[in-house]
């Protein structure tokens, strides 16, 4: 039997690794959109994070510094977006698309002399006896730290949006920026901070690809992961745990179809390769449809420029 | 109540924007516990003045003293810390957040949400304004939304409460509740700065009034000692003539709606339920109701933006429910929606283009498949001339016009097309008194020429002024139209509140 060669524990472990880059990018973008900003530059910030993380890690020999560098690079590129859209009032959609193109080009330039090099290995997190539990240990407790950091960020974002005052202000700014301004909140400042958080998360996600998942630098290696992250935010109805579920679903199908390819299933490779995108979107469409739930959760001021008026 | 130092002294406040002086050397005092009216037309500078008091706008010149101490708020939180709270005209609420979260956002140091919910319940009961802290604001009625704003202010124990046109969205009964609350607050020593252009309200509620015109203070007086007419003339600076109504015979039914139900496609919208009415030629049907009871949906389904089964709406006897706006326009039904910018007019297009968009068919502005720009411009110019739209010319973009001028243009554009039926929603919302009079007169003139007119409005005075028959929308249901003559404000209030048995003949009191 073909499927006999696939081990569930290995599959789950691989799934978590495959899902982490998208999860990081999506949770960052979720916060940005909750603040009412649509940043289509996720792909660009991811790939810049990928190359920046790779360069720093290779130069210093320290993958941790690499990840920090990636987050900073993503944040700086996002700051450019914040400057364009919040200060210069440029159109968010156009600026985001430009950011993606710019990130792709800049990363190709920066990474020219790093093609074909192996980055320093990122160690697995030592969880002691947990990792030795049969099945569970192999599936859930033998990963690098970033997998858990990503989950921690999701929980943190959930707590922040739901229970903290700053999170309430952020949601208020995204829901109705005129009212938030009228109450004396700094719409642009809140949005700029959210945009930078989104950039840092996207950068981390990109570096996870180039330092752990692949691990290598190749031009255009994000291959649309940023776009999937964007779609994930919408179909997850701007809810952190749904974004987590969506990312793991996507990761799971990526890994499964790779295994199926390896096992020689008689389905053309093209269909298998497109299946993760297709299935993730179909499932999320079904989850978010019904009772106009998704649209209720959408930030009211999303993608509307804010002009402070006297 | 009188004290030696007034609560708030305002002296010489001046604020200029490019091209317009919004406030010119305005000075007055507000005593502790006083209900002080700020009266003026749209554009008289009321909003700018209160924004300066609330720290949203910085004055160019002049200063304020609070209890004798210098007071210069840089941002609203400074004002809130000093004990000044404000209820906004367009509510500063967040639809997708619940009541408690909305209240927390307007407070300086809110307690944890659970404690806050209990305090909201306590305060709302103490002031007779019942409110459930866990409900989503998007599901509340306009009156309930205002309660959220008021309670948000009261929880901070303000010394001065600013209310910007609070009654424009309320039913008469809700207005009574509000006034009771405000009087109670005043007795407890809270001063209230009450902004409005509704004179009767001010005369019944306020003990002092400051009147602004064109950014300048024209008078401070006791409104209880002046007639409404005297106040209006101070406010407008000229004599007002109410619209003339010629007695007119009504003709055949021009628009008939039977059993029309429609599900709203907006999650916060109101679905229409079994709407029935017949409009005769020469008749003005006034439809009252508090915002959010289906007015927008009714306009959309009558104008053709939303389709319905074809025989539910009949125009001149012909089923038109399935037709879109252009199809209905061709047959003689035109409409002017509430939202001027973005719905009635395309903000960044010129007046000529906007005139063309609506009048293309009826005014035959298309020649051999191409737009006849000359004719379109003439059409726009004729609207501008007839309705006294103040603008440099038809090449100006719609966005550049003031609200009142644009409203005159979009209504005039429809009237100029000589329709058989015209539907208007909030025709004078945010329009100054003289422009409002022009618009109402134009609608009456059109009816006198034999057209059927439907006026959807939240302004009862307006409806009583123009309407021959009167109906109210409540939660998507329309009461049966009754003759407007002889209706009292109390009866109307009950109709708006959903007492549908009222269409029994008068005298059969409930």
Automatic annotation (TrEMBL), chain A:
<feature type="transmembrane region" description="Helical">
    <location>
        <begin position="6"/>
        <end position="25"/>
    </location>
</feature>
<keyword id="KW-1003">Cell membrane</keyword>
<keyword id="KW-0812">Transmembrane</keyword>
<dbReference type="Pfam" id="PF02653">
    <property type="entry name" value="BPD_transp_2"/>
</dbReference>
<dbReference type="GO" id="GO:0022857">
    <property type="term" value="F:transmembrane transporter activity"/>
</dbReference>
<dbReference type="InterPro" id="IPR037294">
    <property type="entry name" value="ABC_BtuC-like"/>
</dbReference>
<feature type="transmembrane region" description="Helical">
    <location>
        <begin position="245"/>
        <end position="265"/>
    </location>
</feature>
<feature type="transmembrane region" description="Helical">
    <location>
        <begin position="64"/>
        <end position="84"/>
    </location>
</feature>
<feature type="transmembrane region" description="Helical">
    <location>
        <begin position="192"/>
        <end position="214"/>
    </location>
</feature>
<feature type="transmembrane region" description="Helical">
    <location>
        <begin position="96"/>
        <end position="115"/>
    </location>
</feature>
<dbReference type="InterPro" id="IPR001851">
    <property type="entry name" value="ABC_transp_permease"/>
</dbReference>
<feature type="transmembrane region" description="Helical">
    <location>
        <begin position="135"/>
        <end position="161"/>
    </location>
</feature>
<keyword id="KW-0472">Membrane</keyword>
<keyword id="KW-1133">Transmembrane helix</keyword>
<dbReference type="GO" id="GO:0005886">
    <property type="term" value="C:plasma membrane"/>
</dbReference>
<feature type="transmembrane region" description="Helical">
    <location>
        <begin position="37"/>
        <end position="58"/>
    </location>
</feature>
<feature type="transmembrane region" description="Helical">
    <location>
        <begin position="271"/>
        <end position="287"/>
    </location>
</feature>
<feature type="transmembrane region" description="Helical">
    <location>
        <begin position="220"/>
        <end position="238"/>
    </location>
</feature>
<protein>
    <recommendedName>
        <fullName>ABC transporter permease</fullName>
    </recommendedName>
</protein>
UniProtKB/TrEMBL annotation, chain B:
<dbReference type="InterPro" id="IPR017871">
    <property type="entry name" value="ABC_transporter-like_CS"/>
</dbReference>
<keyword id="KW-0677">Repeat</keyword>
<keyword id="KW-0762">Sugar transport</keyword>
<dbReference type="GO" id="GO:0016887">
    <property type="term" value="F:ATP hydrolysis activity"/>
</dbReference>
<dbReference type="InterPro" id="IPR003439">
    <property type="entry name" value="ABC_transporter-like_ATP-bd"/>
</dbReference>
<dbReference type="GO" id="GO:0005524">
    <property type="term" value="F:ATP binding"/>
</dbReference>
<keyword id="KW-1003">Cell membrane</keyword>
<keyword id="KW-0067">ATP-binding</keyword>
<dbReference type="GO" id="GO:0005886">
    <property type="term" value="C:plasma membrane"/>
</dbReference>
<dbReference type="InterPro" id="IPR027417">
    <property type="entry name" value="P-loop_NTPase"/>
</dbReference>
<keyword id="KW-0547">Nucleotide-binding</keyword>
<dbReference type="Pfam" id="PF00005">
    <property type="entry name" value="ABC_tran"/>
</dbReference>
<feature type="domain" description="ABC transporter">
    <location>
        <begin position="8"/>
        <end position="239"/>
    </location>
</feature>
<keyword id="KW-1278">Translocase</keyword>
<dbReference type="InterPro" id="IPR003593">
    <property type="entry name" value="AAA+_ATPase"/>
</dbReference>
<keyword id="KW-0378">Hydrolase</keyword>
<keyword id="KW-0813">Transport</keyword>
<keyword id="KW-0472">Membrane</keyword>
<feature type="domain" description="ABC transporter">
    <location>
        <begin position="255"/>
        <end position="500"/>
    </location>
</feature>
<protein>
    <submittedName>
        <fullName>Galactose/methyl galactoside import ATP-binding protein MglA</fullName>
        <ecNumber>3.6.3.17</ecNumber>
    </submittedName>
</protein>
<dbReference type="InterPro" id="IPR050107">
    <property type="entry name" value="ABC_carbohydrate_import_ATPase"/>
</dbReference>
């Amino acid at each position: 039997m073909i499927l006999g060669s696939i081990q569930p524990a290995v599959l789950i472990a691989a799934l978590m690794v495959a899902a982490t880059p998208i999860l990081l990018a999506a949770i960052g973008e979720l916060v940005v959109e909750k603040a009412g900003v649509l940043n289509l530059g996720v792909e660009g910030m991811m790939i810049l994070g990928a190359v920046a993380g790779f360069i720093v890690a290779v130069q210093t020999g320290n993958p941790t510094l690499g990840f920090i560098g990636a987050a900073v690079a993503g944040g700086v590129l996002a700051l450019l977006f914040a400057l364009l859209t919040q200060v210069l009032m440029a159109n968010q959609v156009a600026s985001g698309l430009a950011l993606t193109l710019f990130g792709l080009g800049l990363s190709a330039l920066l990474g020219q002399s790093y093609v074909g090099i192996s980055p320093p290995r990122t160690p697995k997190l030592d969880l002691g006896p947990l990792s030795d539990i049969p099945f569970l240990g192999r599936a859930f407790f033998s990963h690098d730290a970033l997998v858990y950091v990503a989950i921690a960020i999701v929980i943190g974002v959930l707590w922040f949006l739901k229970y903290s005052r700053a999170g309430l202000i952020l949601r208020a700014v995204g829901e109705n920026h005129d009212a938030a301004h009228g109450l004396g909140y700094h719409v642009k400042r809140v949005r700029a901070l959210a945009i930078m958080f989104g950039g840092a998360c996207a950068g981390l996600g990109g570096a996870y690809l180039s330092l752990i998942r692949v691990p290598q630098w190749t031009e255009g290696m994000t291959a649309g992961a940023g776009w999937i992250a964007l779609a994930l935010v919408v179909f997850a109805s701007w809810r952190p745990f749904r974004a987590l579920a969506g990312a793991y679903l996507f990761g799971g199908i990526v890994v499964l179809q790779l295994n199926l390819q390896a096992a020689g299933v008689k389905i053309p490779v093209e269909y298998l390769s497109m299946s993760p995108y297709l299935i993730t979107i179909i499932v999320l469409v079904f989850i978010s449809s019904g009772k106009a739930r998704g649209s209720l959760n959408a930030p009211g001021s999303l993608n509307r420029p804010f002009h402070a008026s006297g | 109540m009188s004290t030696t130092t007034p609560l708030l002294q305002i002296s010489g406040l001046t604020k200029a924007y490019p091209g317009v002086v919004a406030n010119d050397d305005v000075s007055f005092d507000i005593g502790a516990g006083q209900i002080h009216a700020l009266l003026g037309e749209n554009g008289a500078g009321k909003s700018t003045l209160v924004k300066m008091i609330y720290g949203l706008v910085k004055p160019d010149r002049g200063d304020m003293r609070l209890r004798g101490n210098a007071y210069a708020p840089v941002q609203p939180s400074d004002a809130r810390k000093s004990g000044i709270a404000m209820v906004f005209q367009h509510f500063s609420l967040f639809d997708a957040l619940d009541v408690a979260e909305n209240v927390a956002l307007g407070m300086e140091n809110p307690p944890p949400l659970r404690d806050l919910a209990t305090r909201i319940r306590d305060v709302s009961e103490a002031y007779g304004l019942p409110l459930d802290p866990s409900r989503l604001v998007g599901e509340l009625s306009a009156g309930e939304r205002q309660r959220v704003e008021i309670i948000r202010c009261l929880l901070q124990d303000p010394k001065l409460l600013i209310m910007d046109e609070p009654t424009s969205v309320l039913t008469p009964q809700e207005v009574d509740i509000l006034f009771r609350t405000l009087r109670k607050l005043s007795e407890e020593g809270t001063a209230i700065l009450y902004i409005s252009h509704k004179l009767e309200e001010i005369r019944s509620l306020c003990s002092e009034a400051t009147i602004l015109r064109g950014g300048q203070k024209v008078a401070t007086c006791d409104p209880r000692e002046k007639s409404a007419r005297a106040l209006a003339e101070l406010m407008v600076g000229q004599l007002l003539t109410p619209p003339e109504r010629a007695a007119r015979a009504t003709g055949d039914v021009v628009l008939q709606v039977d059993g029309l139900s429609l599900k709203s496609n907006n999650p916060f919208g109101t679905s229409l339920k079994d709407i029935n009415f017949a409009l005769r030629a020469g008749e003005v049907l006034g439809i009252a109701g508090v915002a959010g009871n289906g007015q927008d949906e009714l306009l959309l389904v009558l104008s053709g933006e939303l389709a319905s089964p074809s025989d539910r709406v009949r125009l001149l006897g012909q089923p038109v429910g399935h037709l879109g706006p252009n199809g209905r326009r061709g047959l003689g039904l035109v409409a002017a929606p509430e939202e001027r910018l973005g719905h009635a007019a395309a903000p960044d297009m010129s007046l000529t283009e906007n005139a063309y968009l609506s009048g293309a068919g009826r005014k035959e502005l298309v020649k051999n498949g191409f737009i006849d720009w000359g004719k379109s411009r003439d059409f726009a110019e004729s609207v501008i001339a007839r309705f006294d739209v103040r603008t440099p010319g038809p090449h100006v973009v719609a966005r550049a016009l003031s609200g009142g001028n644009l409203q005159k243009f979009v209504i005039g554009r429809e009237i100029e097309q000589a329709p058989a039926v015209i539907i208007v929603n909030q025709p004078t919302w945010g329009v100054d008194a003289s422009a409002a009079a022009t618009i109402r007169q134009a609608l009456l003139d059109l009816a006198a020429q034999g057209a059927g007119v439907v006026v959807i409005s939240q302004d009862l005075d307006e409806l009583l002024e123009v309407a021959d028959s009167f109906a109210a929308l409540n939660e998507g249901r329309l009461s049966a139209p009754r003759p407007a003559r002889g209706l009292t404000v109390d009866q109307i209030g009950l109709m708006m509140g959903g007492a549908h048995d009222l269409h029994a003949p008068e005298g059969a009191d409930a």
